Amino acid sequence: MKMINVLDKGYVRLVDTLGSDLTVVNAARVSYAKESLELDDKDRKLINFLAREDHTSPFRHAILQFEIYAPLMVARQWWKYIVGSAHQEGVGDSLNAWNESSRRYITEEPIFYIPEKNQWRSKPENSKQGSGEPVEWELGEKYTKSLMEYIDLGERLYNEAMEDGVCAEQARLFLPAYGMYVRWYWTASLQSVAHFINQRIQSDAQKEIQEYAKAILILAKESFPVSLEAISI
């Protein structure tokens, strides 16, 4: 099981895989009652053809399972791929499964993503979303300090509520949500993984989720080097 650290405290861990590049090839060749036992140049050309011509169903027979630890703001962007996976053109009926830790059941120490003073970004000039260049370091220092103070206050109120006997599912209301790390398992077809990578590795995607997309690409390529080369950016 391989893991890549992301951001300040996050990570992506490859838990399991089903299949290989050969799985994609044989899923396509079954139409002609043929099967390859070892990947060769013809098989590589077939994978590239499938990707080029948007014949995506063979890529759904290979599966990857990840454990991800990321701020909630990243998780909720990622979740859109689970909700929309059965409705997006070219990704319809692709396998996606998601199981996430819940503070209704666990009371482990809250962990938060806190940007360093040189990591705060300005709003973009020509868009209503996304970000621009880094802000001045004095401004970044101000907001790193402010965020830490805000988190400290939320944690104190959360702990007080728990000590006073308030249930965990309500006490968590005091925790600053968007920067809090959450952990989940994501199981997805190779096609769905590639779709996520292609969209979230782009320069106009949120910087934090870009870093996770890069980690997913590295880990997925180790198991499916030919297919990922063909269907990802």
UniProtKB/TrEMBL annotation:
GO terms for biological process: dTMP biosynthetic process. PROSITE patterns: THYX. Gene3D superfamilies: 3.30.1360.170. It comes from the Bacteria. GO terms for molecular function: flavin adenine dinucleotide binding; NADPH binding; thymidylate synthase (FAD) activity; thymidylate synthase activity. InterPro entries: Thymidylate_synthase_ThyX (IPR003669), Thymidylate_synthase_ThyX_sf (IPR036098). It is an enzyme of class 2 (transferase). Its EC number is 2.1.1.148. PANTHER family: FLAVIN-DEPENDENT THYMIDYLATE SYNTHASE (PTHR34934). This is FAD-dependent thymidylate synthase. It comes from [Clostridium] ultunense Esp.
